[in-house]
Predict the structure.
Amino acid sequence: MAVKPEHGVQWRMLARFHRETMHGRERRLAAIGGELRRIRECAGLPQHVMEEAEALVKRFFDLVAGFPPEVVAVAVLWTAAKAAGMPRPLEDFLKCSKASERRVRKVAWRLKEEMRLGGKPSIEDYVKTLAARVNLPAAVVKAAVDILERNRRVLAGKNPWVSAAAALWLASLKKLGLLKALAEAAGTTPASIRNAAKRMKV
C-alpha cells in the first residue's frame, strides 16, 4: 500500500518500519553474500564450502546480523571449511579481508556454540552454559531463568548470550566482579550486559 503525506505521520512511520523490517534482512544477506563470494575466490575454496557457509549464514542469521559483513563472511567460511573437513588457518581468510581477527574469532566462537547446542537451544541452555563457565550455583541459575521467562517478550530477537548473562548478573544481585567474568564467558562486553539488564523487570 502506497503511503502518501495526507495519510498522516503515524501511517508514514508504519510504512518506514515495514520497509526496514521486511527489506533489512535481504540487504544484510546480499552484503554478506558478496563478501563470501569475494573471499572464497581469494582463498581458493571449493564451491561446496561456499554453499555450507551460505547455509550457516541463513541458519544463524539472527546471531551474526549485528556484525559487519566482512567479519561474518570470514567467520562462516572459516567455520564451514572446518565442517567440510578442509580446515584452513584463519590467516588464509584474513589476508583476503580487512576484518578484525578478534571479532572474527568472536563470531566463530558463537557459531560453534550454537552448533554444539543444536541450533535451537532453549534460554535455559544458555543460562546453564554460562553459569557453568563462571561457577554459579543452581539457585542463581533458577532465578535467572525465572527472570528471563518474565521478560520473554522484551527480549524477543535479542542476542540470547547477552540476555542470559544479564539475567545471571541480576540474579546474582549485580556483583561487579561477576559482570566482567560473564562478559568474557558470553563473548560480549560489560556494557552490553548492563544495557540488557536495564530492559528486564526483576
Notes: The mean pLDDT is 83. The two ends are 41 Å apart (CA to CA). The longest helix spans residues 9-43. The chain has two domains: 7-116, 123-198.
